[in-house]
Amino acid sequence: MRIRPWFLLILGLLLPTGVFAHPHAWIDLRVGLVFNEAGELVRMEQSWRIDPTYSHMLLEDLTGQLDGDTDIDTALEHAAERMRENLAGHDYFTELSAGERDLDIPPARNARLTLEDRRLHLRFELPLADLDITAGDRFSYRVFDPEYWIEILHDPEDIVFVENRPGCAVTIDEPRPDPQLIRYAATLERQDRSPVDNLGRHFAETATLECD
C-alpha cells in the first residue's frame, strides 16, 4: 500500500507504511480573522487539532527521534517548522476568495506545534494585509485535503473568531458532495487508486464572512 505523499506532508514525519493500511484521521479546525482599525483584514489564524490516534503516533515517533540533549518542546518546535515548509507547496490546504477573486495564499508564519489533552495542535498564521480585503468584501475560505483522506471540519464547540470588527460574523455552509464522489472517496482508504483532482474540495465546508 502506497502512503499518499500529501499525508506525510501534513504529519511532517515518516512512519512505517504498514501503519496506514487502512488510514483514517480527522482534524478539528479553529479559525480567527483579524482586522486592523482601518477595517482591513490583515491576518487569518488557523489551529488544527489532530485526532488522538494520530497524535499518539506522531508523539511516539517524535520521542523516538530525541537524543539526549533534545527535549520534547524543542522537537515539537522543529516538527512545526517542517510541517509549515511542507504544506507551503499545497497552499496550507487553504483556499481564499474575495468577491469574484481567487486569492493567492501568502507564506504562513509563526507555526507552532503543541500537545494539549493528548492531542497535537498545529497553529499558524496567514498574513493577508497585502491582499486588499476589507469588511465590505464577500470573503470566503475553505480548508481541505486534496484527496479526502483527512476530514477537516470546523470545531463544533468553537466559533470563527472575528477580531476588531463588530457586526461581522462567519457563516459555514455544509458540503453537498455527489453520492458517486462519496463512494469513490470511500475506496481511497482501501485501494491504491489515483484520486480525482482536488477531490477534497467537494467535501469541504465553505466559510463566508458577513458584515452588517
What does this structure look like?
With 212 residues, the chain is an alpha+beta fold. It has one domain (5-211). Helix content is 22%, strand content 33%. The protein is built from four helices and eleven strands. It has helices spanning 5-11, 52-65, 72-88, 179-187, and strands at 25-35, 41-50, 94-98, 101-103, 109-116, 119-127, 139-143, 150-154, 161-163, 168-173, 206-211. The strands form two sheets. Strands 1, 2, 5, 6, 8 and 9 form a six-stranded mixed beta sheet that branches. A hairpin with a 2-residue loop joins strand 3 and strand 4. The longest helix is centred in the middle third of the chain and has 17 residues, at 72-88. Residues 1-23 and 190-194 have low confidence and may be disordered.
